[in-house]
Structures are given as C-alpha cells and as structure tokens.
Amino acid sequence: MDFFNSTENYIASKDLQLAVNAAITLERPLLIKGEPGTGKTMLAEELAASLGTELIPWHIKSTTKAQQGLYEYDAVSRLRDSQLGDEKVNDISNYIIKGKLWHAFTAEQRPVLLIDEIDKADIEFPNDLLLELDKMEFFVYETQEKVVAKQRPIIIITSNNEKELPDAFLRRCFFHYIRFPEAEEMKAIVDVHFPNIKQKLLDEALALFFDLREIPGLKKKPSTSELIDWLKLLLAEDISLEVLHETRQKKVIPPLHGALLKNEQDVHLFEKLAFMQRAGR
Amino acid sequence: MLIDFFCKVREYKVPCTLRELLDLIRALQQHVVFANIDDFYSLSRTILVKDESHFDKFDRAFADYFKGVASLDLDLSNIPEEWLKKNFEKLLTDEEKENIKALGGFDKLMETLAERMKEQEKRHEGGNKWIGTGGTSPFGANGYNPEGVRIGQQQSNHRRAVKVWDKRQFKNLDNQVEIGTRNIKIALRKLRQFARTGASEELDLDDTITATAQNAGYLDIKMKPERHNAIKVLMFFDVGGSMDDHIRVCEQLFSAVHTEFKHLEFFYFHNCVYEKVWRDNGRRHSEGIDLNQVLHTYSRDYKVIFIGDATMGPYEITYPGGSVEHWNEEAGSVWMQRILDHFDKCIWLNPQAGSHWSYYASIHIMQQIVKQKMYPLTIDGLTSGIKALL
C-alpha cells in the first residue's frame, strides 16, 4: 500500500496525511473543505503524482448533472446520422460518451478521481451519486450494460461550502477541513515554492501578510495562493527588504498589493485604516 | 470497542451514526493509526465529523472522554530527570520545597510516582493514593497536596504541550455561537443562498434540443430555473441601549449581501414598533416614516425580518401609551399585528440567548405575536429563520 506524504511541491499537515491515508485504506471518498486558496485542488494533483497514477479531474459547474459523470447519450448526433443514413446509427453504443466516473472505474491502475467544487452543482447532484460512490457501479440503460469498477478509485471531493451537502452523502465520505496554516507552516510552504528566497525578505513579507489578514472586515482575506503570487511578483520586481520594512512601520499600502487584495473596497478600507493610524500618531 | 467514546461524542451533539463508528473500527483494525492519541484524534475526527461547524463539539467531547486517560501515556523513562527536576523546582516556593521533604525529598517522590504508575492500570479520579485528577494524593492534576506532581493538567506546559483538542481552534465555526464578526462569513453564505432562491423559470434551449431529438423530432420544451435573484426583504432593527452592538453586526451582515437581493430596505424602531419608524437613526426625532406608509408601499411578498431583543416592559407592547419615548395612541401589539397581517412571511431574530427567553414576559408576548417565529441570532437560528421565510 502506498502512503501519502508531503511532496516536493506540497506541504501536507500531519492531520491531512492521516485523513488521506485513511481514505485510501478504507476506500472511501475524502471530502476536503477550507478557505479558497489553501490548496484543496492541488492536493489531488499531488496525490496522483506521488502515487504515480492518473488524475481524472471532474470540475463541477452549476449546470453539471450527475449523469454526465457516468455517461451521456448523444441523441442529437444519432438523429443527424439517421437522417444521413449512416451505418453507425444501428449500434447505439456509438453514441454513448463515457463520463469521468466511467473512466475512473475502468482505468488500469487505481486512479485519483477529483470531484472539484461539488458545492457549485445543483442541490440534488450529490444525492444522485450516492449509489455510484457506494457500490462503485452503475447501469447503462441504452446498451443494457453494467459498468463495475475494476478497483475502487481514490476519490477526492472539494467544496467551498456554498451549499450544504446532504447528510446521506456526508455519511459516505471522510471529511477534512484544511485550516489556514500558521506562520511556521506558511514558511515551509513558501520554502517549497521559492527555495532561494532571502530569509529576511521572507520574514518581513510574511509579517506583512499576516498583519493584512488580521484587518477586520476584509471581504476576501488573502490566502496561501495569493501570498505565493505576491512573493513571485516581489522577486520579479526585486523589491528590497527596506521598502517592505518601511511599509510595515508606516502602515502604508504594501507594494504590488493587487496580488493580495482582490477587491476595490478592501484596498479602500486598508488605505483608510492606514490613514487613520498615521493620523492618530 | 469505542462504544463509550462514540456515545460521548453523540452526547455532545455531534451527528454521527453507527456507520461511521464501524468505519473507525475498521480503520483501527487496518492499522491506519497505532497507539498514538494525536493520530487517533485526527483519524476519529476525519471519520466521525462531517462539517467544520461540529469540530468544536467534537473537541470538547474528546477532551472530556480522554481527560485523565491521556496523562497515563506519560513515560517516565523518556524524560531526563535533571530537566524534570529543574523545571519542577522552578514551580515551587521555598516553603513548598520544605514540604517536599515530608515525602522524603524529590528523588523519593519520583520513585514513588514510578511505582504507583506501574500499579495503576485505570483512569482514576478523586481518592488519596492513586494518580488521577482532583485528589489529595501527591500525584495527578488539580490536587491540593503542595508536593504534588502534576500530570496532564492543562496549565502545566512543562510536562505536556496543550493538546490540540484543548485549544478549541474551531470554536468560531460552531453554529450555536452568536453571530459576530468572526463567524460572519458563514452567516453571509446562508444569506446568499437565501437571496438566490425562489426564481422563476426560463427556456432551456440545449435541453429542449436534446429532448426533442430523443423524442424523434417532436418538440419537447424544457424549462430551467432562472439564475436571478427575486427575494425582497424589509428589515426592522431595534436600536438604542443594549442592542446597538448586535445591530451593527446585523447591518454589516445584510448590507454585505444587499446586492444579491432584489430589494432590501432597513428601518429602525425602539423596543417595539409603533406608528412611526425611521430610516436614519441619527434623525429619528425629525424624520419618522408612518408605518402605514410602509405598509402601503411594499407589497405582501416582501419578507420581513425583525431584529431585536424584545426585552422591555410588557406594557410597552400591550398598552396604548406604553412607549417609553412618546405617547402612542395604539398599542405596539396592534402595529405588530398590522405588519403581520399585511406581509406573508415575518420572522424575529433575537440576539438574547435562547435559554434566557423564558425569563422575560415581553419575549413571551412577542413570540406569541409573531406566531412562534422567533429565532436566536446564531447561524442555526438564521438557517431556521430563513427556512421559515421561504
């Protein structure tokens, strides 16, 4: 049995490793929640890479139906083909398009199936997948064929909590909530992405970043992925340590703030607070 | 196996079922974790708890169940005695150090401890000999013996770091906690869902084409719900006095989502609704709006939300002239009733803790007026309130 650890590109907390390993061992889907930008989707990618197996991503939109994950019957092309007198039309299986779950069930090696942002879908979506996720099989009515999983794929499901998931669905999953990393873990994460960053610069930038997160009332707090983008920019622009230090002392808006604050109101709020603080001195 | 633990978790109102217990046992059987309480904590949380709002309850249940048990993991042979002694002595006053000699000095104390740990097999509370909590033996936590050795007590960081479940990091995510700036995000999510419901239908072109093809070319029209916000809301806030902090939070909450509603209007009142309400609290004495006018302006499909503690003298609701600020011709209950008669759906959100409601006559009266549709101002309360509005 392969087990999941932190990889070269991804720092997984001990809790998370344990949750993933439990899900792999007991062959249950693992539901991952957490603030946007804490690496939920990336987990599946890294898991597939570290197990050396295929990743089958299924990105859910508001219009996605559970059936599309199994298979789709392309009736429109069959209708057209029948008008044109195409030979293909007699075999209905020519018009059955395999979905992501079907691919995952029939893969040679046990794959990682990522069901991304399941909360975006219709409220009935998770309920429609109950049996498929439980038994790992489904029935194709058009061809009277039963598709059974060769081996149970490792299923990672992510959610941003926009909708509540039904209890029956939750009962079948394991659950892990990715906490926002503490300063120490954050350092480890940044190290993975920028191995050569200067320690002083990093300390200063992290301090600025955590200060920024502390501001009450921000619409969207910057998260890990924003921090990494911002550092990338800082390095590219070669912003010096002194500038960052001064920024923090004087409470002015940090350089290249566009990477951290994604909302006009947030920028405005920050400026206002900074102004008030300076005026107060 | 683990039945007691499972019962404890359920006792703390974490919704988990037998299915999850079996999963947990299976995981242990397959050696996902072994003989490590931190790992066991993570594993059991992963399997038993399905939503972060229950994490805090789970943490408390876990701490309750494992209090005392965890401390027995202490392995004396692994702790360098010198270090232990040093830290230990730091904690004591000279007087206490003298007292240690009562038991024959530090070395003797540690020796006795080691012996007793060998003898003792189970968790123990009270008593005066065994290691446990709350006793007068020199060993264990929260004891009274000045020469006592603390084992697994929260405050004694030199022996054991505070366990994760004692930190209660997920307190803010608990859905019983009153809405404040910390859990405002979760509340917002609820309101957004609320704002997006109740829309009408539009033609689904793709689905219609597919259905028509499947139907051998006969037209089969499919509809889908329009992604459009149709909810209209009127809010009445009780201002003045103890309510102000709560009101600020609620205003923030609702203004943050105001773009998602089709209409959202704020009004203010004091204690109980009478013939006038205000739009701008600063000019409440000069610019009141007739409640009648409000009733005529907004149609009955507006959803009405009152936010107030409903804590006042009962006469302020039931008698004409009961208002503390002015002479009201008609009683507050009459005006409340007019609002309720005009609008189809009304709820009252109350920042007072639900457990205190029964002590106030006025809350009781108000509850009857709004036909029991009064909810505490928590995430849970907001959820059930919204359900009642739809």
Kindly describe this structure.
The complex is a heterodimer of chains A (281) and B (390). Chain A is of the alpha/beta class and 281 residues long. Chain A contains 13 helices and nine strands. Chain A has helices at 14-26, 40-51, 66-70, 75-84, 100-106, 125-128, 130-135, 167-171, 183-193, 199-214, 224-237, 241-250, 264-280, and strands at 30-34, 55-59, 71-73, 96-98, 112-116, 137-140, 145-148, 154-159, 174-178. In chain A, the strands form three sheets. Chain A has a five-stranded parallel beta sheet, with helices on both faces. In chain A, a hairpin with a 4-residue loop joins strand 6 (137-140) and strand 7. In chain A, helix 9 crosses helix 10 (199-214) and helix 10 runs parallel beside helix 12 (241-250). Chain A is elongated. The N and C termini of chain A lie far apart (61 Å). The model of chain A has no long low-confidence stretch (mean pLDDT 83). Chain B is of the alpha/beta class and 390 residues long. Chain B has four domains: 2-73; 88-165, no CATH class; 194-228, no CATH class; 231-389, Rossmann fold (3-Layer(aba) Sandwich). Chain B contains 16 helices and eleven strands. A five-stranded parallel beta sheet of chain B has the order 6-5-9-10-11, with helices on one face. A two-stranded parallel sheet of chain B has the order 1-2. In chain B, strands 3-4 form a two-stranded antiparallel ribbon. The longest helix of chain B has 15 residues, at 105-119. Chain B is flat, with a radius of gyration of 30 Å. The two termini of chain B are 45 Å apart. The model of chain B is unreliable at 70-79 and 121-162 (pLDDT under 50). The A-B interface holds A 14-15, 18-19, 21-23, 25-26, 28, 31, 33, 62, 73, 75-76, 78-79, 161-163, 167, 170-171, 173-177, 179, 216-217, 219 and B 15, 17, 19-20, 23, 26-27, 30, 32-33, 38-39, 42-43, 45-47, 49-52, 55, 169-170, 181, 186, 189, 192-193, 209-210, 213-214, 217, 227, 252, 256.
